[in-house]
Amino acid sequence: MKNKYIFILSITFVSSLLLSLFSEGLKEKTLFNIQLDKKKNLLQTIGMNTDILTTDEILKEFNDNIKEITLDLSGNVLSDVNHDQFVTKENNATGELKYYIDENEYLPLFLSETMNAIIIPISGKGLWSSLYGYFAIDKNNFSTVKGITFYKHGETPGLGAEITKEWFKSSFTGKEVYLDDSIESIKVTKAGQANENSLYEVNGISGATITSRGVEDLLKRDLLRYENYFRKNK
Amino acid sequence: MNKKIFLDPLVDNNPISKQVLGICSALAVTVKLEQAVVMTLALTFVVTMSNVIISILRNYIPSSVRIIVQLTVISTLVSLIDKALAAYMYDLSKSLSVFIALIVTNCIVMGRADGFAMQNNVKDSFLDGLGNGIGYGIMLILVAFFRELFGFGTIFDIRIFSESFNNGLMILAPGAFIILGLIIWAQRSLTSVVEE
Question: What is the mean pLDDT of each run of 10 residues along chain A (234 residues)?
Fold first, then answer.
């Protein structure tokens, strides 16, 4: 019955060889897709329609419009650190992403001179999964919202996944995050209950209260992380 | 004879509506037609290829470890698809990824490998896999058609009903249960098949 073991061993050997070859061969393309998707989402936050752009156009628009900036925790701009060096760690309880080089924590930031905006990465827990996205605000007053996107999530299609839909994202545009001198952020109310005249409220998603609340929480928390930078440059 | 192997699972012996297998994914990925179509292609590829490979190896596989061998073959194929989707259809793989991985646990694939490919020649196994994959797909697309139409008011994201038409029940799992139940009921009363 030695035969049996040899058979299993050779089957597993062949499949693992096949898989690793395949995976290695497609690695570059997959990583490129992930990066491209993030760039697409960054461009969307500053109001660009990326659906009509080809891959090359997206890369070009990105290089023309968006600059990567790195901050330390007290909000100073560091010119010698770029985003590729970051090691990202996620807090599994809150879905918060933190960026490290060695043991030091940094904050990534995107600047768009052309569209007069700064973009911060946002992330946090929804109902089933962590939500990852970008949030753009005016670069002069750090308050007026330019746009929001989510590039990765695992919420229910038709319910929590509505966070990626135009109606939800566009409801943030033009709102304010600063009230007097403190960050008020934006409240995501129950569906249909937002005060239309309020600059600090948007409608939540019907049937997805926990995802809506997750968006509200992560927005405020991630904005507060950049408060030092806002205060210094306001 | 060969024709029957291919045609049988399409309607008369459909893996979903007759054998009631693979219900999990039939409920999960039928919210939108596009997802259902890609899922169909992926499953058809996996079940056909696994049938062919198992059939080629059938005389060498020691019977005491046959399930392990089948699982290895199936999960390898599924991982290949998963990686290919991430590289070439990234947007779609984002919305499908977890369900593609779950093809491994789809009873149809395992059932055909162990129940058919282990006893039959390569050509028949190929036809059987193809037939079962397409039979599964017919049901998936049928269910997705009704769910997308009544849930979102669209077909392949093309708007049929007005924007305000949005039925939450159809989008959630109960909608799939109801539609699938109705289809199974309709088929059984038309063919007057009774479960033994």
Answer: 82 93 92 91 89 88 91 88 88 91 91 91 93 93 93 82 89 90 90 87 90 94 93 84
Is pTM beyond 0.90 here?
A: no
Per the prediction, chain B carries an average pLDDT of: 87
ipTM of the complex: 0.74
Q: Where are the beta strands (DSSP E) in chain A?
A: 67-72, 77-78, 87-90, 97-101, 104-112, 117-125, 130-138, 145-152, 178-179, 182-183, 187-188, 201-202
For residue A111, list its beta bridge partners: A67, A118
A21 interfaces chain B, CB cutoff of 8 Å? no
Chain A nearest C-alpha distance from B171 (Å): 6
Structural tokens at position B98: 């977890």
Contact in structure between B61 and A7 (CB atoms under 8 Å): yes
B89: pLDDT strictly greater than 80:
yes
CA B152 and chain centroid, separation: 23
User: How many angstroms separate the CA of residue B14 from the nearest CA in chain A?
Assistant: 27
Q: Which of A7, A152, A158 sits opposite B60 (nearest CB)?
A: A7
Q: At what angle do helices B90-101 and A2-45 cross, to 10 degrees?
A: 140
For residues A15 and A61, give the distance between their C-alpha atoms in angstroms, rounded to a whole number. 42
* Amino acid letter for position A119: I
